[in-house]
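Project outcomes to date are best conveyed with an example. Our students and postdoctoral researchers have been running inverse folding experiments weekly, and each run begins with a structure described purely in tokens. The record below, which covers 115 residues, was selected by the lab manager from last quarter's runs and is presented without edits.
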């Protein structure tokens, strides 16, 4: 599948690695509601000229998956800040305040709540 790599020069390989790292970093650094989106820009970094349509679950199954994903963030990232930002709102960046929810607490906080 990756036989094309054997044909690339050292400079082309370095360029490919940089592009892949940039794509991975962009995905890694996504936050808030960006975490829930389809990411074709990341997949476009692959050499395959393919844009398969995803199988989309019906609403009840989809929402159960969203809830399970959010629960997994409590398990896998218990120290990540919890913020109250509605979909479509702009965030002023990652919350760097010392007031954070920890340990699976699903209570959202924001700078506005800290009054």
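After processing, the design step wrote out the following sequence:
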């Amino acid at each position: 599948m990756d036989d094309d790599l054997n044909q690339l020069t050292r400079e082309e390989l370095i360029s490919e690695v940089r592009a892949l790292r940039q794509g991975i970093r962009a995905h890694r650094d996504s936050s808030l509601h960006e975490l829930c989106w389809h990411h074709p820009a990341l997949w476009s970094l692959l050499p395959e000229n393919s844009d398969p349509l995803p199988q989309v679950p019906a609403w009840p199954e989809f929402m159960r998956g969203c809830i399970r994903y959010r629960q997994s963030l409590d398990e896998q990232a218990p120290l990540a800040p919890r913020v109250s930002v509605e979909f479509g709102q702009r965030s002023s960046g990652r919350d760097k305040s010392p007031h954070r929810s920890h340990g699976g607490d699903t209570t959202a906080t924001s700078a506005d709540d800290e009054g």
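Residues 95-115 have pLDDT under 50 and may be disordered. The chain is about 35% helix and 0% strand. The training component of this project remains on track.
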